[in-house]
Amino acid sequence: MSHSSTSPLAGPTTSTPALQIRGLGKSFPLGGLFSRASLRALHGVDLTLGRGEIVALVGESGSGKSTLARCVARLEKPSSGAILIDGVDILKRDRFQASRAFRSQLQMVFQDPFGSLNPAHRIEHFLRRSLAIHGKGGSSEQEIQRRLEELMVTVGLQADMLNSYPHELSGGQRQRVAIARALAVEPQIILADEPTSMLDVSVRIGVLNLMRKLRDDQGISMLYITHDLASARYLADRTAVMFAGELVEEGESLDLLANPAHPYTQLLVSAVPDPSRAGSYDPVRRAELRQAVMASTNCAFDGDPNQPCSAEEPVRHQVGDPKNSHWVRCHLYQPWAGADGHALASEPTLATERTHMKASA
Ligand SMILES: Nc1ncnc2c1ncn2[C@@H]1O[C@H](COP(=O)(O)OP(=O)(O)OP(=O)(O)O)[C@@H](O)[C@H]1O
Ligand SMILES: [Mg+2]
Description:
Layout: E1 19-29, E2 38-49, E3 54-58, H1 65-72, E4 80-85, E5 88-89, H2 95-105, E6 106-109, H3 123-133, H4 141-154, H5 171-183, E7 189-193, H6 201-218, E8 221-226, H7 229-235, E9 238-243, E10 246-252, H8 253-258, H9 263-270, H10 283-295, E11 316-318, E12 327-329, E13 336-337, E14 343-344, H11 350-360
Parallel strand pairs: 3-8, 3-9, 6-7, 7-8
Antiparallel strand pairs: 1-2, 1-4, 4-5, 9-10, 10-12, 11-12, 13-14
Bound molecules: adenosine-5'-triphosphate and magnesium ion.
């Protein structure tokens, strides 16, 4: 299919990452008009999305994943930090630049495909509209028609479904339409916020495979937000873990999920059924981890000197082999040298966690 990978706004070198998030912060005001209280939804988030890379963002409900995506999509205004697409800080662009040209670089796919498709219109309407807004369909009706059919085929739908209404499609088919609508714009980046979580398990894999194919065939970079660690391992090159508005660990998906270093990541991983860890599920260990994580609600630096985990902002530690890009930010993490002198990834002991909990009580 015809796909243009050149940016309409910048002339990036191929080494420039598709997306760089630097020191991103977002606070929401709490209370009434005159209240000064605020909720810190994001703090100091640094994340890079390489060209043609899929990065999963995982973390529990309320950890700030959607807020991050909404800031990048300019649906929320960040309180601090920078967001660079093709090396250009989008927060410094004026409104006009930020609108149409920006949307043609970056598209979002949401959790609820039904909510984003007006039931009064046929599928053709949504795709045709996207093409028209971004001037991508071609100059003749014949070209537009060919492009519409091409988009349907790309997302694995039959072209005659263009005449269907959203309610005539299954959830998986509707999500494919939502993806086709995003593709109509020929974006370089797709932010997918839990795109499969409302779908039946049997069709989830099809949507994940479609996302992977789009990356492979068209080089689209994707931020894949999910609660599902198994799908992160399946789809994403790298996985980043968000806890209380901060990234606490990041690495290649296979490595990070096999050797989680942060107690919070360990807790998330311990809940995933994994045949390779059959028999290793330890409910006592899991309960202790949960307690340790819950006790450290101030895991995020908040300047309270009485909280050992918050008196100082944790620094990043390399986990395991320096060749891989696995890092963790946790005061509990202590890399230790093995007998042969190599730095090894250590797992914080529960004794350490208990000390931490007691000290922070
Ligand atoms: N518009 C808003 N006004 C006030 N608080 C908000 C707003 N949007 C998000 N929040 C708060 O910011 C925090 C992060 O929310 P966010 O939706 O980013 O979490 P999430 O990780 O996407 O959760 P989930 O997995 O449930 O989707 C939450 O405490 C939420 O209540
Ligand atoms: Mg969310």
